[in-house]
Design brief:
By secondary structure, this protein is α/β, with parallel strands linked by helices. Helices cover 40% and strands 12% of the residues. Helix 2 links the parallel strand 2 and strand 3.
Length: 368
């Protein structure tokens, strides 16, 4: 059947595939396991993006983190350009770019460039947190003191949006500054410009983000994978605060979910335990590469660490493919999420790839 190239495409709402309750997507931290290199992790990301595309996952996002040896996603725009060259259809985006770390003009230029590389496939997810510790954030921003005031973020967001739309009012200091690639090219002599502009998503794990994104009428991505206790209240607040906009006529919220499927339940537990040990070390100020399951099995957790391990494990949907499907179904029903974005916490690339393959099979997603 021929595809209508002129048909309007919804760049926010996904399509339900197979037996999934809602669209399924992927969140990638480009994790580096002990015994592996960043190059290995990036090769896994390419393989995973292609697997996700072939199996009908809706979008593939990369998260910004800094100064963490086990996370090689410090430059989402660079990674997304690489993934765009290896995929054809799947939506690619940031989950997210931490707006306070960057000048809005730079982000507009980067994502305008990505849009030119992969027209109609780019999402711009934005976060308010630094994505790292305070000292690293200060180094990124070339500042001795951090300005994390909630009042700054809406102003930064408004500035970025105007750069993306090229619509600063006359008399504004930036009225003659243009993000290129961008809309200004269409107004130049002989100019032709893509009709697409990366849709903005706001990420969050708190009520502040939920209320802001609702009042702006934008799609919301909530970090359930590390703030599970706030998920339902935040989504309720988002929906209650929502005001229709030219972008959305009704709320649309995805949630990030830590999910890992393996061929047997024991292997899933081993991988999740290794990821938990990695988080314990990070929280103690000793970040490193993701340990092997064997190292995690041999590690003697003290009582406080054991408590964290149990809490962390309870928030990861893991087990066999059928167990993960059941857990994801229950979570979607409980939260009413419009989309589930899955992130696999595991030591090796093979385990991560296998997890998404098993989940795709469990939901009878397409195979090509």
């Amino acid at each position: 059947m021929a595809v209508d190239e002129t048909a309007e495409v919804d760049e926010i709402r996904g399509t339900v595939r197979g037996a999934a309750p809602v669209p399924l997507s992927v969140l990638d931290l480009v994790t580096v396991g002990a015994g592996s290199t960043a190059s290995d992790a990036l090769r896994t990301s390419v393989a995973l993006s292609r697997l996700a595309e072939s199996r009908g996952f809706h979008r593939y996002w990369v998260a910004e983190h800094h100064s963490m040896p086990g996370v090689a996603s410090s430059s989402p725009a660079v990674i997304l350009a690489h993934l765009a060259a290896h995929t054809e259809r799947i939506r690619l985006g940031s989950g997210g770019v931490m707006l306070p770390n960057h000048a809005p003009l730079v982000i507009a230029e980067q994502f305008g460039t990505l849009e030119a590389m992969a027209p109609g496939r780019i999402d711009l997810g934005l976060g308010r947190a630094p994505g790292t510790d305070g000292a690293t954030a200060a180094a990124l921003r070339r500042a001795d003191q951090l300005h994390e005031g909630a009042e700054d973020f809406p102003q930064q967001l408004a500035e970025l949006t105007r750069f993306l739309d090229d619509d600063f009012p006359d008399g504004h200091p930036y009225a003659r500054i243009h993000a290129v690639p961008g809309p200004v090219q269409a107004g130049s002599p002989g100019g032709v410009q893509s009709p697409h502009r990366p849709p903005i998503w706001l990420l969050g794990s708190s009520g502040f983000s939920a209320r802001l994104v609702g009042t702006l009428g934008l799609p919301f991505a909530f970090a359930h994978h590390f703030s599970a206790q706030n998920t339902v209240p935040a989504l309720d607040l988002y929906r209650a605060s929502f005001r229709p906009s030219p972008v959305l006529d009704a709320p649309y919220a995805l949630i990030g979910v830590a999910a890992l499927a393996a061929d047997d339940e024991k292997e899933a537990r081993r991988q999740v335990r290794a990821a938990a040990l990695n988080m314990i070390r990070l929280r103690k100020g000793r970040p490193g590469l993701v340990p092997t399951p064997e190292e995690a099995e041999a590690y003697a957790f003290d009582p406080l660490e054991e408590e964290f391990l149990n809490s962390w494990t309870a928030n990861v949907v893991h087990g066999t493919a059928d167990e993960v499907r059941s857990g994801l179904d229950d979570l979607q029903k409980r939260t009413g999420a419009d989309e589930l974005m899955l992130t696999a916490n595991a030591h090796g690339g093979a385990a991560r790839l296998r997890s998404y393959e098993l989940i795709a099979d469990a939901y009878e997603l397409p195979t090509a």
